[in-house]
Write a structure and sequence with these properties.
This protein is mainly alpha-helical. It is built from 16 helices and four strands. The strands form two sheets. Strands 1-4 form a two-stranded antiparallel sheet. Strands 2-3 form a two-stranded antiparallel ribbon. A hairpin with a 2-residue loop joins strand 2 and strand 3. Helix 2 runs parallel beside helix 4 and helix 8 runs antiparallel to helix 15. The termini are close together.
C-alpha cells in the first residue's frame, strides 16, 4: 500500500470508499426516511420530531470537536484515526437497529426512547466518522489526489444511496408484511450488519502517511483558535450547513410530494397505459437522482487536475438553484419533467459532494501553512459537525414547514398544505442554495493559492528533514 508521489493504489482508494458505503446506509436513511419513519411509522408528531433533531445538535456541538481533538491526540501502532473505525464498528451497528425499533410504550415513553437511541446513534456516527473523514487527509498530501479519493468516496456514498432507495421500502414490505414497524427493524438489522463488515474492510485496506511533527504540542484552546481564524474553513463550514439543509429539505420532502401530491403516476408507452403507485414512483425518482449523482461525482473526479474547486462549486450551486425553483410549476402529471429536473439537480449535487469533501483537507493544509501547526482531526470533526448541523437543521426545517402548512399524516391534505409541500421541494432548497453561493463567493482558496500552499508545505517539510507532516511509506 505504498503511495508513489502522493498517489494511492486503486485497492486503497476502493477500500477507503467502502467506509462511506457503511456510513451512508445510515446517512441516506436519515435524509430520505427518518422524518417519515418517526411521523408515519413510529407515531410521533412532526413538531416532536423537529425538536428531537434540534436537541441532538446541542450535544453534537460538544461531541464532534471533542472527538476530533481526541483523535488528534491518539497515538497507536495502527495510527491516529483507523483504530476508532475498528473499535466502534459493532456498537454502531447495534444502535442502528435499536433506533429503528418501535417499542410498545405510551407516547411519552416512545419519545424518551427516540431521544436516547437517536442521540446514541449520532454519537457513534461521530466516533466512527470523524476519524474516518480525517483519515482522508492523512492518506496522501497531494490536494489533487484527495479530490480523486473524494470522488471514490462520493461514488461509494451514492451507490449506498441507490441500495437504500431500492431496498429499504421493498425490504420493509417483504419482511414486515402489514407490520411496517417490524419491517423497519429487520431492514435496519440487515443494513447494519453489512455496514459493520464494510468498516472492518476499510480499516484493513488503508494506511496513515501524513503525520505531524513529533514535537508539536498544542492545547485545545490553541487548536480552536487556529480553527476559527482559518477563514477558508469558516467559509466552507457555513457553505456545508446551507448545502446540507437544501439537500435534506428537498430529498426529505420527496416521499410527501409523491404520496400526497402526485399520488399515482400515469404514463403512456406505445399506446399502453401504465399506472405507478406513489412508493414505486418516489423510489424510481430517488434512484434516477442517485445514478446521476454518481455521474456528477465521476465527472468531477476525472477533471480533478483541471478544475478550480471554488469556481466549480459556485457554478454548481447556481445550476441547482435554478433547477430547483422550476420544480414548483409541475403538475402531478408532469412526471417526465420531474425526472429531467432531477437529472440536472442531482448531477450538480454529486459534483458538489466531491468538491466539498476534497476542500476540507485543503483547509487543514491552509491552517498548517499559516500557523505551522496541523490538527487534521479537529478540522475534519468540525467539518463533519457542520454537515451534521445542516442535516439536523434540514430535518427540523422540513418538519417545521410541514407543521406550518398544516400537514397531518396518512390523511388527504388541504390545498394549502399541498402548496406548502410543493414549496418545500422546490423554492426553499433554492433559497439555501443562494445563501451557500453568497458565502462560497468569499472562500479564498482558488487553485493558484492551493498551488502556493502545497509548494510551501513541501519546502517546509524538506527543510525539517521530513519530520513535519512527513510522508510515511
Amino acid at each position: 500500500m505504498k503511495a508513489k508521489n502522493g498517489r494511492l493504489s486503486f485497492f486503497e482508494k476502493f477500500g477507503y470508499s467502502l467506509g462511506d458505503v457503511a456510513s451512508n446506509f445510515y446517512f441516506q436513511t436519515f435524509i430520505l426516511f427518518i422524518t417519515y419513519f418517526y411521523t408515519d411509522v413510529y407515531g410521533i408528531s412532526a413538531s416532536a420530531v423537529a425538536t428531537l433533531f434540534m436537541v441532538t445538535r446541542v450535544w453534537d456541538a460538544v461531541n464532534d470537536p471533542l472527538m476530533g481533538m481526541i483523535a488528534d491526540r491518539t497515538n497507536t501502532k495502527m495510527g491516529k484515526f483507523r483504530p476508532f473505525i475498528l473499535w466502534f464498528a459493532i456498537p454502531f451497528g447495534i444502535i442502528g437497529v435499536l433506533t429503528f425499533t418501535t417499542p410498545d410504550f405510551g407516547m411519552t415513553g416512545k419519545i424518551v426512547y427516540a431521544y436516547v437511541t437517536y442521540i446514541l446513534l449520532i454519537m457513534l456516527y461521530t466516533v466512527v466518522n470523524v476519524p474516518y473523514s480525517a483519515l482522508m487527509g492523512v492518506l496522501t498530501e497531494d490536494p489533487k489526489e484527495r479530490t480523486v479519493v473524494a470522488s471514490y468516496r462520493l461514488i461509494a456514498a451514492f451507490v449506498a444511496g441507490i441500495i437504500v432507495q431500492v431496498s429499504v421500502m421493498t425490504l420493509v414490505r417483504k419482511l414486515g408484511g402489514d407490520n411496517e414497524q417490524l419491517g423497519w427493524q429487520w431492514t435496519m438489522s440487515i443494513l447494519s450488519g453489512v455496514a459493520t463488515v464494510l468498516l472492518f474492510i476499510t480499516f484493513a485496506a488503508t494506511k496513515e502517511r501524513v503525520v505531524p511533527l513529533h514535537s508539536q504540542k498544542t492545547t485545545m484552546k490553541q487548536d480552536f483558535a487556529d480553527l476559527f481564524k482559518n477563514i477558508a474553513w469558516v467559509c466552507i463550514a457555513v457553505v456545508s450547513v446551507f448545502t446540507l439543509i437544501m439537500i435534506v429539505v428537498r430529498n426529505g420532502s420527496i416521499m410527501y410530494y409523491f404520496k400526497y401530491y402526485v399520488k399515482v403516476v400515469n404514463l403512456s408507452f406505445f399506446g399502453r397505459e401504465l399506472s405507478i403507485e406513489f412508493g414505486t414512483a418516489a423510489s424510481s425518482f430517488m434512484i434516477i437522482g442517485t445514478i446521476l449523482s454518481i455521474v456528477g461525482a465521476i465527472l468531477v473526479g476525472s477533471l480533478a487536475k483541471k478544475i478550480d474547486k471554488r469556481k466549480s462549486y459556485l457554478w454548481l450551486l447556481g445550476l441547482f438553484a435554478v433547477t430547483s425553483v422550476v420544480f414548483y410549476v409541475f403538475s402531478p402529471d408532469d412526471f417526465i419533467l420531474m425526472v429531467l429536473s432531477q437529472i440536472i439537480a442531482t448531477t450538480s449535487l454529486g459534483a458538489l459532494g466531491v468538491l466539498q469533501w476534497s476542500i476540507f483537507p485543503d483547509t487543514a493544509d491552509y491552517s498548517e501553512w499559516k500557523t505551522g501547526r496541523r490538527a487534521t482531526g479537529l478540522v475534519m470533526a468540525a467539518s463533519l459537525f457542520s454537515i451534521k448541523l445542516g442535516l439536523a437543521l434540514g430535518g427540523s426545517i422540513l418538519a417545521w414547514l410541514l407543521a406550518l402548512f398544516g400537514f397531518q399524516p396518512n390523511v388527504a391534505q388541504s390545498p394549502d398544505t399541498l402548496i406548502g409541500i410543493r414549496l418545500i421541494i422546490s423554492v426553499f432548497p433554492a433559497v439555501f442554495a443562494v445563501l451557500a453561493f453568497i458565502v462560497m463567493w468569499l472562500y479564498p482558496l482558488d487553485q493558484s493559492i492551493l498551488d502556493q500552499v502545497e509548494s510551501a508545505l513541501q519546502k517546509r517539510r524538506q527543510q525539517k528533514g521530513g519530520a513535519d507532516a512527513a510522508v510515511v511509506e
